[in-house]
Amino acid sequence: MEDNSSISAVKACCAPRNPERGEGSATGGEQEPALAAAGRHSEGAVALPGGTFLMGTDYAEAFAADGEGPVRPVALRPFLIEKFPVTNQRYLRFVEETGYVTEAERFGWSFVFWSSIPKKRFSSVVADTVKAAPWWCKVPGATFRTPEGPGSDVRARMNHPVVHVTWNDAVAFCRWAGMRLPTEAEWEYAARGGLEQKLYPWGDKLRLDGKHQCNIWQGDFPNVDTGEDGYRGTCPVDAFPANGFGLYSLAGNAWDWCADWFGTEHPAGGEDNPKGPESGVGRVIKGGSFLCHKSYCNRYRVAARTANTPDSSSANVSFRCAMDAPA
């Protein structure tokens, strides 16, 4: 299996690229759910006023290749964004109502983090690993229903973010829900919760009064996750406090797909309602995941960003829905 260098900003610990899938989608055509009435299947969307905010960061520890800076003013129109990432329960309802088949199911495999696979099943379920990050295992049969492959299921994780969904799978859900993916600018504005240029949705300190505020890796990555925050792997979408806008799970837990193609050139003078480049190789993901650790992937900061190809899926990437504010 080739490594992921074709998307220079992607770190394999974040979201490994699925190189065998190519640039296209295995779904589409007859699989496209009918466009629903606006917000028909929305749950807990928060109306945000928009306006101008400072996007990006000049944080010294940011990854230069990720294009987080420069800090620039960005103006947004009012929009709505859901409080939570889409959960397994909601995605299952979508699949049951539409008959939609995810790309992981159609391709027959997805990426699973090595320590999530029971040792007794490891040799029988792992087909290959990512050369640049051998902790990512190609597992036949890994899907949103069976997140660690055959023998696993999500029945005890219905309030966790759905994972093993590609960008294309996320767009299909949004279409059914009468919504869309947020742009990167909308996502970052929402994640900041009204704070200006803070590292995290709650401020500049990773913990508040010694309490964990998000689900990330503690310990020696990638060998030992001590689970000091209470979790190893994903956690319920409401496990940690909301930000100032009443939104949850914006740092750690699972990455959120955004609508934009990934690019690293941003006008310093700012933009109005930016939607990213017109084309590209990878789509933006934001927020970090339970695998992020300061020693390797400090991307659970609000301004942090990376990308993956739209037909890639793994155990730590999810999404949430947004929509334009009613006229």
Short description:
With 327 residues, the chain is an alpha+beta fold. 13% of the residues lie in helices and 19% in strands. The strands form six sheets. The chain has a four-stranded mixed β-sheet with strand order 15-14-12-16. Strands 1-4-17 form a three-stranded antiparallel β-sheet, covered by helices on one side.
Uncertain segments are: 1-10, 22-29
User: What is the N-to-C succession of helices and strands?
Assistant: EEEEHHEHEEHHEEEEEEEEEE
> How many individual helices?
5
Helix content: 10-25%
> What oligomeric state best describes the polypeptide chains here?
single chain
Global morphology: globular
Query: How are the strands ordered across the major sheet?
Result: 15-14-12-16
β-strand number: 17
Gyration radius (Cα, Å) is 18 Å
The amount of beta strand, in percent, is 15-25%
Mean pLDDT across every amino acid position: 89
Largest sheet: 4 strands, mixed
Distance between the termini: 49 Å
Q: What structural category arises from helix and sheet content? A: alpha+beta
